[in-house]
Amino acid sequence: MSVKIIIGYLRLLNRVLQQEHIDLSKAVAPELWHDFRACLENPDEQEFDVERYTLLLQAAQAYFPRPITLVLAEHANLQDLGLMGYLASTSLDLEQALQLLQRYYSLVFKQTNLEQLSVQQFSQYIQIVWSASYCDYREMYELNLALILKIAQSIVQDALVPPQMIQFGYTPQMALYHFEKFYGCPIQIQAGQYAIRFSNQILQAKSIAADQQLNHVLSTQAQQSLNSMSSFEAQQQQFRQKIQSYIEQGLLQQEEVLQGYVAKRLHCSERTLQRQLKSYQLNFQDILDQYRLEQSKLYLQQGKSFSEIAERLNYADQSAFGRAFKRWTGVTPKQFLKL
Description:
Residues 241-339 form the HTH araC/xylS-type domain. By secondary structure, this protein is α+β, with helices and mostly antiparallel strands.
């Protein structure tokens, strides 16, 4: 799975790196840094996914004594969250902002196939919850949790009452006391689920820039975007899955030219295949790399040798596989097994 994020996340990270005078170009793979810069310069033509963004966060962490996710949240503004940020700021109160957050949370991403957020209200408290199925997205989950608090603090007129509880779906890489200080409440760990809980008294906290007319216009725009995205992504996902299934078959049959094999199975030329991929905003090499990454992690966990994995994934040798794996993840296969 490849989930694209909006440009605001990249601009936020870039802003923090510039303010702290940090050059991350030597700490990450050249291709990763090139794609990051290219997307910043041409956001309408380039896309960036969560997997690569988390690699940048992991690399940036080495330059900070505190969790990079909290540093980013402290520097964030509503504009970084795009339409979602403007919807929150024009809401009448925090209750309306949370309702809109639940409805349009997926607009923070360019695809809707990430776990959905849920706002649950009880007699004494309200909590925002979402499941977390992908350990590789841990930093992204932490960042989004911190951004929810940041949004709430930014839009209300008076000081926000601290949360009653924060729950992490994965144990963070850094000590919990950093997070407890940031949130001002205890941190719990429950595998697979993130949550933030507030007392119900915060719901009536008034927004600084409440504008119901503008909020209605923005909500209509958000719903149109969501409808458009959902329709396109359903077709995109179906085509992606079809390509991936043929890639899998081609690897099993040890086909030398995978793209040619896939085009043949689709009864078209390679040029036509390229046009079809472009129409769905997909790239053949990205789909192949994603499949190889997921399979290589599975094979490593199953205890298969590096040479066997290289053969199964159609690499020239295990060194070529090792280089590709480090380019994807930032670590070697041996280091991955020790994580």
